[in-house]
Design goal:
Number of strands: 11
Number of helices: 7
Order of helices and strands: HHEHEEEEEHEEEEEHHH
CATH class of the largest domain: Alpha Beta
Distance between the termini: 68 Å
Strand content: 15-25%
CATH architecture of the largest domain: 2-Layer Sandwich
Radius of gyration: 41 Å
Largest sheet: 4 strands, mixed
Mean pLDDT: 79
């Protein structure tokens, strides 16, 4: 028995001496196979290979309840956005999630949550009185105010802001206001013409003119008054047309944004 072992050992040593490259290559292949097998075992362990769970639907739920459901399912979570406030959702509600609900993922994946902000942003109200109405409305919308309306009242100067109210109350410039507040801009329509007949027909001069001159002066006054009213009406119509055009542009932008958001959502679902 001992002689057979010695002969086998001696035979292997002679083969190795004759073919060292072949023997070393074979040993390297065996080592690589062993390392590959060990690596596969570790990959299965650390990537939870074959262990998938269905993602629960936590949309429209309060954040606390959504967290409890995800943790009960053994899933990790992170908040991807909580700065945007949506009026049609309650504060602290989960708006969206990624990966989507009912998809299958490995437990090592993280569920990213888009959460509605706890309150709408607060911004200081700018000084708007005496500015053109369209400029004031554009300024508020650019700052993030969502509900801005323009109302017109009779006035001498047309197109200028006379008053600004927030939720029906007068608010001084610089005061903090929620971007979801109802803001109304009151603009003068220029329909009041400040023409005093006594300035044209001075009572002291009436004694020195005859009836014909008085009638001519009265006629000139009436014509000037009609012309001023016509100019005011033209300015009002031009302002209304411009506001209608601006509204159409805003509506088109909103429609384009909705179409873009819808396309992104569709592309997300495809992916």
């Amino acid at each position: 028995m001992s002689n057979n072992k010695d002969n086998n050992t001696g035979g292997f040593n002679r083969f190795r001496d004759r073919h060292p490259i072949l023997v070393n290559s074979g040993l390297m292949v065996l080592a690589l196979l062993a390392l590959g097998y060990i690596a596969l075992l570790f990959i299965d362990v650390f990537t939870s290979h074959g262990q998938q769970v269905q993602v629960p639907d936590v949309r429209n739920l309060p954040l606390e309840k959504a967290i409890d459901i995800l943790e009960d399912a053994g899933l990790r979570w992170e908040i991807s956005d909580s700065t945007t406030f949506y009026e049609n959702y309650k504060p602290g509600t989960v708006i969206d999630q990624d990966p989507k609900a009912k998809s299958y993922i490995k437990k090592i994946r993280i569920i990213y949550l888009n959460v509605n902000a706890m309150h709408a942003p607060i911004i200081a109200l700018p000084k708007l009185v005496d500015l053109p109405g369209r400029q004031g409305a554009a300024t508020l919308k650019a700052m993030g105010f969502k509900h801005v309306t323009i109302d017109s009242v009779p006035s001498e100067m047309g197109g200028l802001i006379l008053q600004v109210t927030v939720d029906g109350h007068n608010v001084a410039p610089g005061k903090p206001v929620s971007v979801n507040s109802q803001i109304k801009i009151t603009v003068g329509d220029g329909s009041i013409v400040d023409i005093n007949p006594e300035q044209i027909l001075d009572p002291e001069m009436l004694d020195s003119i005859d009836e014909a001159n008085y009638q001519d002066a009265q006629k000139n006054y009436e014509e000037e008054l009609k012309a001023a009213q016509a100019r005011a009406e033209q300015e009002r119509k031009a302002q209304a047309a411009q506001e209608n055009q601006d509204k159409k542009k805003d509506d088109k932008k909103k429609d384009d944004k909705k179409s873009s958001d819808k396309k992104k959502e569709q592309d997300k679902k495809k992916n």
